[in-house]
Amino acid sequence: MPNFRYRAIDLSGQMLEGVLQANSSALMAAELERQALFPIDIEEVKKTSAGLGLSFQTTASYDDVTAFTEDLAALLSASVALDRALQIIHQSTKRHALASMTRSLWDVVSKGHSFAEAIGAYPAAFPQTYVKMVEVAEVAGNLDITLQVIAQERRRGRELRRRLTSALAYPAFLVLAAIGVLFFVLTAVIPEFDNALVGMGAVANGSASVVFALSRATAANSTLMSIIGVVALCGVLFISRSKTAKSILISLLGYLPGIDTLLMQERAVVFCSTFAMLNKSGVDLPTSLRLIRGLMREKHSAEVVADVLARVRDGSQLTDALSHVSFLPPYGLQMLRVGETTGDTGKAALRVATYYEARLDRSISRATAIIGPLVLLTVSALIAWIIVSVITALLSLNDLLM
């Protein structure tokens, strides 16, 4: 969605300026009129580098936004005015991207706009859940508390992703190391023994012939295999940065035994923790489901949440709508149903998220504890087979010489 810079006059005759998102300038003008502003000038913001025609956007990092949220919540809790708090953060930060963003937010808020409108111009830094919670909090007058909740949730989400990444990094390192060792052995070590046997006119038999044939094939196609390795690495980097590629990969992994359970637990954590956070901030149920739908990393999950949203809009209870789809684990669904019956759905969702986050952490730890030794045993057995095959061939040659 493009950004538009505007100038408008309010009912008191004061000139206001700012940047907001809209699908078109006409919709932008309609939105300004809805806010009782008379638009004077509306211009789409073009982010281009001088002379090159390349688009760039300086965006604060995830951790910078989290720290900004915590600092702003602390200042607001100390009864500092919002515009003054933004000014203090702008003047104290040493990060260029964050300083630039806070300067823009300060300018927009100082001209009479809400904080939700200001951060809405930075969708890469502030997701829709963040913006909506701030919008509701500004109406309710508890922006400082809401920002504290958002910061805590962002920290929790970052820590969960860090644990998952750390758990997966060890097996991935073992696999890459194993591939590198095997490639070195087949291209640098085995050919020496193969040349020695050929020089003596001996012919390898049995498993030794398989090892030497595999070594010759690997050495002959080493360039091609290196290119394939580089392409595979580039593919991994592309998948890590592409939401579409991630969605496809996650959908495919869901068909593997055991992985489907992990993905369901991960969905339960994301759905319930986000719902609890939105519910605590006073966001209505349909809006919460719409925002959660946008957080789903795969298309199928987003479609399921959309189906739940449609059922809720038709008058169904949340748990009744969830019971028609295989989205949450049965235990989590029952806990939500109990919370819905007692009128405390938000706290029930938080308990479900905490429960399945702990289970997901344990499942990942167990999987890592199994995969690591399994990879080591497999590689050790393969290398042992290669060594035994080569030694057997050399011993047979020694018997022939004697």
TrEMBL record:
Main subcellular localisation: membrane
Keyword flag Transmembrane: yes
Keywords: Cell inner membrane, Cell membrane, Membrane, Plasmid, Transmembrane, Transmembrane helix
Annotated protein name in UniProt: Type II secretion system protein
Organism: Rhizobium grahamii CCGE 502
GO biological process entries: protein secretion by the type II secretion system
Residues in the signal sequence: none
Domain of life: Bacteria
Keyword Cell inner membrane: yes
Membrane-spanning residues: 164-190, 219-239, 369-397
Ranges where the Type II secretion system protein GspF domain occurs: 68-191, 271-392
InterPro entries hit by this protein: GspF/PilC, T2SS_GspF_dom, T2SS_GspF_sf
Membrane topology: Multi-pass membrane protein
Protein family per UniProt: Belongs to the GSP F family.
Cellular compartments per GO CC: plasma membrane
Location in the cell: Cell inner membrane
